[in-house]
Amino acid sequence: MSLTDLKRRKKKTPRKDVSIEDFIEDANNYAFGQPSVVSRNRKKLTTGRHMGLDKHSTKIYKHATFSLTEESIGILDKLASQSKIAKSRLIRILIHEFSNKNKVERDTIIATCDDH
Asked: Has residue 4 been placed in a domain?
């Protein structure tokens, strides 16, 4: 057994039953180089669910690594669970709010949070 056998694999989504008519129509479409009816129906089902960042929006985001204290991580976890907002989005909101404050307000926040 190699190490690749130990990798986690995504669980396959259960396949929906396909009618005989759709199966035959898909076979005909495949023969003529046309798109599948079943995959079009599957896309309609999955587009309604929230699947995270879409392919277009991920281009505007960049992965970043920051060091946070245990206390900050705990507060962030608590805020994220209470507000039901993803931690990364919550951090973006907090950065936006901090940047909209004037210098005096920012200095006050910095002075009160220096020990955290």
From this structure: no
Give the whole-angstrom CA distance, residue 24 versus residue 14: 21
> Do residues 60 and 104 touch, judged by C-beta distance below 8 A?
no
**C-beta of residue 84 within 8 angstroms of C-beta of residue 92:** no
Q: Find the length of the chain.
A: 116
Question: Is 53 a domain residue?
Answer: no
Residue 21: domain span = 17-47
Provide the pLDDT for residue 49. Answer: 44
Over residues 8-61, the pLDDT tens digits come to: 667 777 777 777 888 788 888 777 777 776 665 555 444 444 445 555 555 677
Residue 56 resides in a domain? no
Let me know if residue 10 belongs to a domain: no
The one-letter code for the residue type at 55 is K
| Spatial contact of 76 and 90, defined as CB atoms under 8 Å apart | yes
- pTM, two decimals, is 0.48
